[in-house]
Automatic annotation (TrEMBL):
Keywords: Endonuclease, Hydrolase, Nuclease, Signal. It holds the Pfam family Exo_endo_phos. Belongs to the DNase I family. The gene is LOC103277758. This is Deoxyribonuclease. Residues 1-25 form the signal peptide. PANTHER family: DEOXYRIBONUCLEASE (PTHR11371:SF11). The keyword Cell membrane does not apply. It comes from the Eukaryota. The active site is at E105, H160.
Amino acid sequence: TGWASAMARLFTFLLTLLGVHLVAAAFKICAFNIRSFGRAKAANQKVMGALVQILSRCDITAIQEVRDSRGIAIQMLLRELNRYDRSHHYSRLESKRLGRGSYKEQNVFVYRMDVVSIIDWRQFEDEKIGNTEAFVRGPFAARFHSLFTAILDFVLIVHHTSPREAAHELNLLFDMCKELMEQWKTENVMVLGDLNAAGAYIPANAWARIRLRQDLGFHWLISDTEDTTVSHRTCCAYDRIIVHGEELLGAVVPRSAKAFNFTQALGLSEEEALGISDHYPVEVNLRLAPKAQREL
Ligand SMILES: *[C@@H]1O[C@H](CO)[C@@H](O)[C@H](O)[C@H]1NC(C)=O
């Protein structure tokens, strides 16, 4: 088995080199609310075909709205993704099943394990009975480590706010970030996901009270004018990427944060696109480490 594991390591190393040679000169982090991703979608070849094309663009994707009590759908997605993109090996880290009552969702980090690894993670709690201060669905945080990025370690916090509680939960996220930065002794955190941080969910007069927005340490990379929704009837920046920490901000490729319009990229009709999700993924690029660039 020593020989086998040595061969496996060599193979992974070669894949890594190959991957770095083949992909773009940046490291892409994405967040994607795949509306109600469960077994029905996982069984739909057209939807799965589109999803693997979308996910294979990203080194890390923070997926929201995974809805399958048996966990089969996400397993199928990973299998298809690894089949589709053989230049990388994709792995996943799942949150708890989150939510009040019987309606549950999971957040899942899908990441290229030949490029980046997870060294720690933390699940924040759902609302406890009698505690109105908590989240409807607790955010999920993971600490990533990569030799390929201009920053060695960074924290991603994926969250899907409850629409009606969006303003309140954005404030809770501020406290949560402070707590996590203290616990993990780092300033470099990125909050990403469907925060419902737009439109009717955040009344214009609420912004002034939202510390995550007002605190100058937090940089909102997806602006209010971005449209992260698929339908042409809606136009809202629900999905966001927010960066804290000078080192992480410095590692971000300027102006790389945007929504990924897969309707256009995959040449779909609006109806076909809505079959995949009602949200576009949002994404941002990190610069590569000088060493990784030399290998290109
Ligand atoms: C996405 O692309 C489609 C097809 O080109 C276009 O009709 C739509 O307006 C675009 N949506 C956004 C939000 O840019």
